[in-house]
Design a protein that fits this description.
97 residues, BolA, BolA-like protein 3 isoform X2, Mt_Fe-S_assembly_factor, 24% strand, alpha+beta, BolA-like_sf
């Protein structure tokens, strides 16, 4: 990975978010206020080049996966410009019986 100094490991503790993770998560919380869960992980070793995003929200109900992903891309329009990649996983909360 190009962001890491020689000899550095990509493993880090997940107790606290990186600045980039926190920024992306905050934007998603604002854009998806009904989200039951939002998880943002910097998978580029902490340099902010690539993120994996998981969002579970009622706002995705009755939308195709491609439409759900378009909603996330639109929400992160400005941030995506500085990224090399983005993995998006979206879902609708399971209904409890």
């Amino acid at each position: 990975m190009g962001c890491l100094p020689a000899g550095e490991s990509t493993v880090r503790k997940f107790a606290s978010l990186t600045d980039g993770e926190a920024r992306v998560a905050q934007i998603l919380k604002e854009k998806f206020p009904q989200a039951a869960a939002i998880k943002v992980v910097d998978i580029s070793g902490g340099c902010g080049a690539m993120y994996e995003i998981h969002i579970e929200s009622e706002e995705f109900k009755e939308k195709r996966t491609v439409q759900q992903h378009q909603m996330v891309n639109q929400a992160l329009n400005e941030e995506i410009k500085a990224m090399h990649g983005l993995r998006i996983f979206t879902s609708v909360p399971k209904q409890r019986d």
